[in-house]
Amino acid sequence: MVTQKDVADLAGVSFITVSRVVNGEANVKEETKKKVLAAIDKLGYAPNFAGQVLNSGKCNTIAILTPIPFIKSSRMFYLMQVLAGIEEMCRKNSIDMILGTVPEVMENTSYDYLRPFKQKKVDGIIYIGLKKIPKEMLEELKKRDRPCVVIGDRPRSSFLSWVDTDNFNAAYNTVQKILEFGHRTVAFIGLEEGIYNENISEREKGFIKSLQDSGVAYSPEDYILRTDYDASYLQDRIADAVKKWKKKPTAVFCSMDVLVPEVVAGFVKAGFSVPEDVSIVGFDGFINDTNYNIKVATNIQPLKEMGKTAAEILFNHINGNVSKKQTAVFQVEFEVNDSLRHV
Amino acid sequence: MVTQKDVADLAGVSFITVSRVVNGEANVKEETKKKVLAAIDKLGYAPNFAGQVLNSGKCNTIAILTPIPFIKSSRMFYLMQVLAGIEEMCRKNSIDMILGTVPEVMENTSYDYLRPFKQKKVDGIIYIGLKKIPKEMLEELKKRDRPCVVIGDRPRSSFLSWVDTDNFNAAYNTVQKILEFGHRTVAFIGLEEGIYNENISEREKGFIKSLQDSGVAYSPEDYILRTDYDASYLQDRIADAVKKWKKKPTAVFCSMDVLVPEVVAGFVKAGFSVPEDVSIVGFDGFINDTNYNIKVATNIQPLKEMGKTAAEILFNHINGNVSKKQTAVFQVEFEVNDSLRHV
DNA sequence: CTGAAAGCGCTTACAG
DNA sequence: CTGAAAGCGCTTACAG
Question: How far is the CA of A286 from the CAs of A126, B42, B52, B79, in angstroms?
Fold first, then answer.
């Protein structure tokens, strides 16, 4: 490979001068500079990454770590949009992104998702907070004292910065909107208690508070249905609920867009027309990017912006501009669509 | 940061011995080894990446380069599945993946998508062949003599290995299948001539040959409609065609699944029922992963397998096991679904 | 304005 | 079985 020495030989200077030219230092005679640049051009020299890293201690690489395989389509949109934001900032700063996934079940292979971090192959980490950050990762971060920013969760650790949406208020406002459309009986599709997801529980809290504040009667045990990420048994739950309900809901607030198709299927199976008999409101903003047969009223998170901000915060940490924990809360945009009807 | 020297001091040996233990060399006394391992464990030592790279010249990182932004949902499934396969191989070999995109329009920023490659920050590249490989990239590859494997295209350059599906035969067999279902007038939705995509043109050739071999009359100018990736004006094209057709097609073969919703919408608008009046067959295998309202007969590419094989080939090149161009052709699986009816 | 020296963390021969 | 020396490609003081 072509090194500074090769360039130096061709240009008839020392390799130190080459280094100066490469790094744009001022104290180089114009003529020398020209010779060096010509040699660089001729040989196609580019400074070797490893040499620079060893000196600076910075590798200009960050890791994007997700706790869910890329391929899970229900989460792909989320990941991709966040990634697009991160990438934009990385481009501007000539930073590269290493992509990693935390294994879902602990594999007994030699695979170590923290290896790049331990090896100092990355300057910092952006963790996609679709699941709680693993303990062993937390320990590594603490031990090696390198920065990490979490997107979509709000970890309490003092050394973790985060970026998140205002889920409580988004849900609160969504319910207000639903009420404006005349609905008085609203169901909520949430997550099983056992599943950790601060976002969804905030949305649930916002849902409840909003109904309370508006003096709308509700009984959580009846109108909050729970499921898992795959909505496995959700249709059955809906069938059961429909039998029990004395007052049938005229609107359903789904805590995640990915649940919408199953929710609609469940209600249709139970004899409802959607959205004629029951309005559907989602959360996330992905459903309308798929080929779903109805445009769904939903809450659109500024995921790309969140990715950008997360990257900015991380870069600040890496460059030592900011050492203490940073947080950013983003507002969500409600989008009325065909699935929300007046009652 | 903790270095070999720190470990050596604690264990009371030289840093060379530490290196030996870390690299699992045989000639270390068992007792010494224990002391060193204890020190490594206590200090949480992990070998610094940059030091190793400078020695070995290998950075155990590959770049995945795509000519389309991640976020383009029409291509997300493709990218993600390929990526999943690559990732699996990377895990096994402790290789990291840097993700990059070729800018769609030449930006006048300082962004250089080949920088990691020039800096020798990656040992090789996997290029997602959704567009033709850019000339400047080809030149860099040649100049720096480091390996590249293309997925989904078949570049002729002698230094580019590739992995692709057998598009011609897949299309050929698909048409045979359609004919088995009794159809005798079949339309094809292809790409505009100006758009480079060897795959799609192979599919078109397979379509034509299959009809010819079966002695089914066809007139390409009538039954091959063309569009761009976004299917922008496809509905208009269909409307025009419907007016001209003397014999209306009873089946439509879409060269890409992403076109299916627009094709169906176009035919429905023209008064057809789908699939009652016209069967629809796609290609790729993504459409059924979305919430589309009909299960579409389609051709499923083994994208994950292709990703794995591409990675394997690349690793072979990197490790010097194989120096000459390698290619692999994958067969496609036809999946009959609701959208293909007997006539 | 330019170059010789030292060092970043590691590995690879070479001695002993 | 273990260590001193040299070197991977670069940058950062230090001399001149």
Answer: 22, 47, 43, 18
Indicate whether this model's pTM tops 0.85. yes
Asked if A166 and A331 touch (Cβ cutoff 8 Å), the reply is yes
* Residue B292 touches partner A, C-beta closer than 8 Å: yes
Reported as half-sphere exposure (CB side, CA atoms, 13 A), residue B310 has a value of: 36
CA–CA gap between residue A337 and residue B240 (Å, rounded): 31
Distance CA B155, CA B199 (A): 12
Find the residue closest to C11 using CA and C1' atoms.
Answer: B55
Please tell me whether any atom of strand D lies within 7 Å of the Cβ of B56.
no
Instruction: Find all residues with CB under 8 Å of B146, minimum gap 6, and list them.
Output: B117, B123, B124, B125
Residue B227: pLDDT band with limits 50, 70, 90: very high
Distance CA(B76)–CA(B62), nearest Å, equals 20
d(CA B203, CA B166): 9
Torsion of CA B24, B26, B27, B31, to 10 degrees: 70
The contacts of residue A51 (CB under 8 Å, 6+ apart) are B54
Q: Which two three-digit tokens encode residue A137?
A: 């990762």
- pLDDT, tens digit (0-9, with 9 covering 90-100), for B258-286: 999 999 999 999 999 999 999 999 999 88
What percent of chain B clears pLDDT 70, i.e. is strictly above it?
99
Which residue(s) pair with A254 in the sheet?
A: A189
Optimal mutation site among B40, B55, B59, B71, interface A, most CBs of chain A within 10 A: B71
Work out whether the CA dihedral B23, B24, B26, B31 comes out positive or negative: positive
- For chain B, the residue count is 343
CA distance B237 to B263: 10
Give the pLDDT mean for B43-67. 93
- Tell me the pairing of strands B298-300 and B333-335: antiparallel
User: Which B residues, 21 through 60, put their C-beta within 8 Å of a C-beta on chain A?
Assistant: 44, 46-51, 53-54, 57, 59
Task: Examine the pLDDT at B77 and tell me if it is beyond 90.
Answer: no
Residue at minimal CA–C1' distance from C10?
B51
DSSP element (H, E) containing A40: helix A30-43
Residue B107 has pLDDT above 70, yes or no: no
Nearest Cα residue to A171 out of A197, A136, A208: A208
Phi-psi region of B83 (alpha: psi -120 to 50; beta: other; left: phi over 0): alpha
For chain A, give me the number of helices (H) and strands (E)?
13, 12
Rounded to the nearest angstrom, the gap between the alpha carbon of residue A310 and the centroid of all alpha carbons in its chain is 9
Instruction: Tell me how far apart the alpha carbons of residues A319 and A59 are, in angstroms, rounded to a whole number.
Output: 12
CA distance A153 to A114: 20
Q: Which residues are registered as beta bridge partners of B164? A: B329
